[in-house]
Design goal:
Helix content is 44%, strand content 15%. The chain is of the alpha/beta class and 250 residues long. The structure holds 1,3-dihydroxyacetonephosphate.
C-alpha cells in the first residue's frame, strides 16, 4: 500500500506573511497528521520562511520550478541547490502551466528532472493532455511521449525518489474534474508503462497523484480508485480549511 500524498500547489499566490500564517495553521492542525504525506508548494519568496515554520513537523515543502543548471549567468532563475538550502524536499517539474505559458517541452522537463535528482531533491513530475488531444483520442500517445522523453536517462533509483502527477490540462482551474474512471484509466496506463520500463516493483511503489479541480467534495471518490495515490491541488489548496478537509478525506 502506498501512503497517500496530498500536495498543495499555490502557484503565484500568497505573500510571505500569508504563507507563514497558512503554514502555522497547518502545522497546528496536523500535529497528529493522518497517515498521509502532506506537501505544500509556496512561491519562491516564501519558501524559507515557511520552511522555518514547518521545521520538525511532518509537512514537506516543495518548490514549483527550478532551473536545470547548478549556477551561472541565468538572470531570474533559481537552482536546485538554492531550493534545497531554502528547505525544500520536492520540486514540481513539468507543470502544464510551465509547458504552455513558458514553452517548456519534454526535453526541458527531462533536464529539469535530472537537475532535481542531482540536487538531491525529489521531483513531482507532471503530465497531462489538452482537451483537443483528448477529443482526438490521443491521450495515451501524449502521455506516453511525455513519459518517454521526460524520463530519458532516469534510472529506477531516480523513479524511486519521484512522484508523478497526472493533470489533464482541461481539468486545471476549470472546475471540470476528470471522472474517477477517466483518471483511473490514465493512472493505470502510467503505472503499466513504468512497470514495463522500470519493473513491476518500482511501478507498484510509485505514488501517482491526480490534479485538476480537486476539492473537498470530490477527493474521496478519486482516492477510491486503485491507481490514484494522492492529489495535487491548486485552487482548493489556497484556503487552509479547504486544504485540511482534502488532507483529511475519508
Ligand atoms: P486546480 O486544482 O486549481 O485545478 O489546479 C490543479 C493544478 O494545476 C495543481 O498543480
Amino acid at each position: 500500500m502506498i501512503r497517500p500524498v496530498i500536495a498543495g500547489n499555490w502557484k503565484m499566490n500568497k505573500k510571505i506573511a500569508e504563507a507563514v500564517d497558512f503554514a502555522s495553521r497547518l502545522r497546528y492542525d496536523l500535529e497528529a497528521p493522518p497517515d498521509r504525506e502532506v506537501i505544500i508548494a509556496p512561491p519562491f519568496t516564501a519558501l524559507q520562511a515557511v520552511a522555518e515554520v514547518l521545521r520538525g513537523s511532518a509537512i514537506r515543502l516543495a518548490a514549483q520550478n527550478l532551473h536545470e543548471a547548478e549556477k551561472g549567468a541565468y538572470t531570474g532563475e533559481i537552482s536546485g541547490g538554492m531550493l534545497s538550502e531554502a528547505g525544500c524536499e520536492y520540486v514540481i517539474v513539468g507543470h502544464s502551466e510551465r509547458r504552455t505559458l513558458f514553452g517548456e517541452g519534454n526535453e526541458t522537463v527531462n533536464r529539469k528532472l535530472r537537475a532535481t535528482i542531482a540536487a538531491r531533491l525529489k521531483p513531482i513530475f507532471c503530465l497531462g493532455e489538452t482537451l483537443r488531444e483528448r477529443e482526438e483520442d490521443r491521450t495515451k500517445a501524449v502521455i506516453e511521449r511525455q513519459l518517454k522523453e521526460g524520463l530519458n536517462n532516469l534510472t529506477a533509483g531516480d523513479i524511486g525518489r519521484s512522484l508523478l502527477a497526472y493533470e489533464p490540462v482541461w481539468a486545471i482551474g476549470t472546475g471540470r474534474t476528470a471522472s474517477p474512471e477517466q483518471a483511473e484509466e490514465v493512472h493505470r496506463f502510467i503505472r503499466e508503462w513504468i512497470a514495463g520500463r522500470y519493473g513491476r516493483e518500482k511501478a507498484e511503489e510509485l505514488a501517482i497523484l491526480y490534479g485538476g479541480s480537486v476539492t473537498p467534495k470530490n477527493i474521496a471518490e478519486l482516492m477510491l480508485q486503485q491507481d490514484i495515490d494522492g492529489a495535487l491541488v491548486g485552487g482548493a489548496s489556497l484556503d487552509a480549511a479547504s486544504f485540511l478537509q482534502i488532507v483529511r478525506y475519508e
